[in-house]
């Protein structure tokens, strides 16, 4: 288990996870959500994306939708999904001077923020579907 210090500013540390197997409902055919949670403010961001995105696609999505507005993360905590441990992703972190920390899948002690946010999101989606909202 890794020791995670509490951040001193917003977007210094972020938790990242993904929700997959979402039936595509748009022309763009998004089938997944990338979930990023700001550890300092506990603020979630849900980004639709294709689950077969390679590391470069995911890095560009993060840059275009988050980092270009907030600055680069100093530390990202993530499960060990293949796209997050690819050589390209690791090299991008080296280039930007950020640190990538891995947790084990479904290990709430280290990546609990993203895991809990996904549980909340799934609960909200079920409610919307059940009541036809």
Structure, described:
With about 130 residues, the protein is an alpha/beta fold. It has one domain: 2-Layer Sandwich (Nucleotidyltransferase, domain 5), CATH 3.30.420. Helix content is about 40%, strand content about 20%. The protein has four helices and five strands, in the order βββαβααβα. It has helices spanning about 55-70, 80-85, 85-95, 110-130, and strands at about 15-20, 30-40, 45-50, 75-80, 100. The protein has a five-stranded mixed beta sheet, sandwiched between helices. One of its GO terms (biological process) is DNA integration. Keywords: RNA-binding. GO terms for molecular function: RNA binding.
Number of E-type strands: 5
What gyration radius follows from the Cα positions, in whole Å? 15 Å
Q: List SSEs in N-to-C order.
A: EEEHEHHEH
Q: Report, as a whole number of angstroms, the end-to-end distance.
A: 41 Å
Low-confidence runs of at least 5 consecutive residues: none
What is the CATH topology?
Nucleotidyltransferase, domain 5
Kindly report the spatial arrangement of strands forming the biggest sheet.
3-2-1-4-5
Helix content: 25-40%
- The CATH architecture name reads 2-Layer Sandwich
How large a portion of the residues is in β-strands, by DSSP E? 15-25%
Descriptive tags:
single chain; about 130 residues; alpha/beta; Nucleotidyltransferase, domain 5; 5-stranded mixed β-sheet; globular
């Amino acid at each position: 288990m890794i020791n995670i210090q509490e951040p001193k500013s917003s977007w210094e540390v972020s938790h990242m996870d993904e929700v997959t197997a979402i039936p595509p409902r748009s022309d763009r055919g998004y089938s997944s959500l990338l979930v990023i949670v700001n550890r300092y403010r506990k603020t979630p961001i849900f980004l639709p994306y294709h689950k077969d995105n390679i590391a470069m696609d995911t890095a560009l999505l993060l840059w275009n939708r988050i980092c270009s507005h907030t600055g680069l993360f100093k530390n990202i905590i993530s499960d060990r999904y293949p796209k997050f441990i690819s050589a390209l992703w690791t090299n991008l972190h080296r280039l930007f001077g950020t640190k990538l920390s891995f947790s084990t899948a479904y290990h709430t002690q280290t990546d609990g923020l993203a895991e809990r946010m996904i549980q909340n999101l799934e609960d909200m989606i079920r409610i919307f579907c059940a009541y036809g909202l």
